[in-house]
Amino acid sequence: MSIPAIDTRPDSELLTHKMSNHFPHLVTNSNNSQQITRRQLIENSLTQFGTIAVAGSIAQWSPATEAFGGTNPSKGYVDAHVHVWTPDTTAYPLAPGNTIGDMKPASFTPEQLFSHCRPCGVDRIVLIQMSFYGFDNTYMLDTIRQFPGVFVGVAVIDDEAEQPESEMRRLKSLGVKGFRLMTHDRDADKWLASDGIQRMWKCGGEENLAMCMLSNADVIPSIDRMCQEFPDTPVVVDHMARIGVDGQVRDSDVDILCRLARHPQSHVKISAFYALGKKSSPYDDLAPMIRRLYEAYGPQRLMWASDCPFQVDPGHNYKDSVNLVSERLDFLSDEDREWLLRRTAENFYFS
Ligand SMILES: [Zn+2]
Question: What are the residues whose beta carbon lies below 5 Å from ligand 1 (ion)?
Fold first, then answer.
């Protein structure tokens, strides 16, 4: 079987340098037998791990959010990273420099996503702003509004704007929980020291909005310094820092990512299996790396994600991504699997 070299496609975010310069681009009060309340769960989590990000969630807890959980007593999994887009480029224009030909697949709407994720028990999704739309988060925001309780978003804004925190607060009111940051081919330290990025990290700490980092392992030491400077700002590292994107899962890279775990606000997405290591289902070759991350971060700071639609490209499918965590990683307990597949992202994004 031939596996397409997805990570080399121009539209794949797993590609390090292709992005063009213009793209600056609850448990619920459950009906289960244990009668665990969401508040108890969070308190247990705090007792065990004391994570600042979870503490941020507690600060935001209210009867209203509890009621939200009550009206949405979902036990389904949460996919922490999906992109959606529409072929309707009239209603939702592409950002300059992007073409319809860049959209592969040509369409990946919420309904198309549901056909993959719902049969696998996934019913809530964290949307990640797609690069085609640049800083215009409208399609993502409209999708969040169209499916209440199903989606939240991670937006992309102009970090060179004068006061990016204004846009961060506006987007927060519309269902955005974090902001995507990419180093591209910039000097990471210089970029992270810029006024706009510094303002974004400060606002992230004040508003419990995550800085979602798409970067390789070599940038993690720079992110580490930011975690030290902004200890209240939640941080989520995408796709295990893309370790293994070149086919090689290097222990030295995993070491770097594991060191970041000493910052309680740091989280890692266990995701994009289609593009890492052997890039071949059932993705068992990624198990040693995921085990080390599990030992460093604990299950409460790891969240599974598919990175659709790329996970459902030919040669791969949605179920195989879920199954690696739900059935295969033998070092995980049943409770651990629940954290990776649901609770971590639920507490972080849906509470
Ligand atoms: Zn992605």
Answer: 13, 307
